[in-house]
Amino acid sequence: MPISGYAGKDSFRFVVLPIVIGVIGSVGSSSRWYRTIFLEETGKDYVRTARAKGLSELTVLFRHVLKNAMIPILTGVVVVIPLLFMGSLLTESFFGIPGLGSYTIDAINAQDFSVVRAMVFLGSLLYIVGLILTDISYTIVDPRVRLS
Fold first, then answer.
1. Buried-state track 49-69, b at ≥16 Cβ within 10 A, e below 16
2. What pLDDT sits at residue 47?
3. Comparing C-alpha atoms, which of 114, 92, 113 is closest to residue 101?
4. CA-to-CA distance for 77 and 21, rounded, in angstroms?
5. Which of 23, 55, 120, 147 has the most CB atoms lying inside 10 A of its own CB?
6. What is the CA radius of gyration of the chain?
7. Distances (CA, A) of 63 to 42, 84, 141
8. How many CB atoms neighbour CB 15 within 10 A?
9. In the prediction, which pLDDT does 107 show?
10. Which residues contact 70 (CB under 8 A, 6 or more apart)?
11. CA–CA gap between residue 61 and residue 47 (Å, rounded)
12. Residues of the chain with pLDDT under 50
């Protein structure tokens, strides 16, 4: 695996290492978060009632536990969006990948404040769009959350 740089035809080789590092870095906290949510939901009364009715374990997990656990999971996904943007700033500049992250770091070093303002605006716009999409997905996942 090449450590830095970026080539047009062999671009996949240059992106594998940053992707692996990003995934490994987030697996621990994400898996602990999801485990906590699912364990909390499986201990509730409605899950016990569904199991007592004789429903299969897959039905209980997918129809009851997953459906009710999606609200905190969707909220956690929105929190990750700014972190992904900031992580791309560091990752792209470290690995020498041309993109918005390395462009922003170069603009900060060159004190090009118009580019920095534009990137902050883009990050905040992505965050707001993420919040709107989360609210829309709440209405899809949980029928109790509807517009009046």
1. ebeeeeeeeeebbeebbeebb
2. 92
3. 92
4. 19
5. 55
6. 21
7. 12, 30, 11
8. 14
9. 92
10. 141, 142
11. 8
12. 148
Q: Which helix (H) or strand (E) holds 112?
A: none
Torsion of CA 80, 85, 89, 91, to 10 degrees: 50
Helix 113-141 crosses helix 100-109 at what angle (to 10 degrees)? Answer: 140
* CA–CA gap between residue 56 and residue 75 (Å, rounded): 29
| 92, amino acid identity | E
Question: 102: which 2 tokens?
Answer: 């390395």
From CA 113, how far away is CA 122, in angstroms rounded? Answer: 14
Nearest to 38 by CA among 15, 60, 69: 69
What's 44's DSSP letter? S
How far apart CA 105 and CA 120 sit, in angstroms, is: 12
- Given a contact cutoff of 8 angstroms between Cβ atoms, the answer to whether 30 and 37 are in contact is no
| pLDDT for the residue numbered 146 | 67
> Do residues 118 and 108 touch, judged by C-beta distance below 8 A?
no
pLDDT at 74: 83
The model carries a pTM of: 0.67
